Amino acid sequence: MHTPVSKIAALTICCLFATLTYANSLDEPGNATACVISGNETCWNDLRLPKDLVPQSYEILIHPDLERFDFRGWSCVEVFVNTSVNYIVMHTKDLNITINDIRYKIYSEKIEVERHFINGELEQLFIKLSSHLLRHSAVLINVSFHGILNKKEQGFFRSSYKINSIPRFFEMLCQYQ
């Protein structure tokens, strides 16, 4: 039997898969692709994500707070490097993100982040690396995030209802298009 907490956790994981997603189809492997940025301009300006990195597995931990109407969490995504690039692009919306660590899975060698920022128009997190990723390697991307459970009925949000006009119950839902 599912408790309300386990339903919330399952729903939360579903939402984060949509929030922290990468391109999931393979591209023809090519040569190294360099990215030059200026200010908050990136070399990637497409709503669809690049096919350079392909997700292999996800680990997600989330802690919703129904008293403060926010949530905090952590995610580790293992990606396969299809094309050697010096950037990572992820979808995100209305999240404060901290890059904790990016490293090679086998070597445990840390990959330095030059800078990162969110492109609000495309709803993408852009991470500029100080070096190119090794083609055909596995990379672990660890991020922490914080968001607000708002009433916009977009992304991860809250809703409420009453039973017999007595107590008010809150639930967390997700809506993605």
From TrEMBL:
Domain of life: Eukaryota
Keywords: Signal
Signal peptide (UniProt feature, chain positions): 1-23
Domain Aminopeptidase N-like N-terminal intervals: 54-164
Xref: Pfam families: Peptidase_M1_N
InterPro entries membership: Aminopeptidase_N-like_N (IPR045357), Aminopeptidase_N-like_N_sf (IPR042097), Peptidase_M1_aminopeptidases (IPR050344)
PANTHER family per the UniProt record, alphabetical: AMINOPEPTIDASE, PROTEASE M1 ZINC METALLOPROTEASE
Full protein name: Aminopeptidase N-like N-terminal domain-containing protein
Lineage, top ranks: Eukaryota, Metazoa, Spiralia, Lophotrochozoa, Annelida
Gene for this chain: 20206327
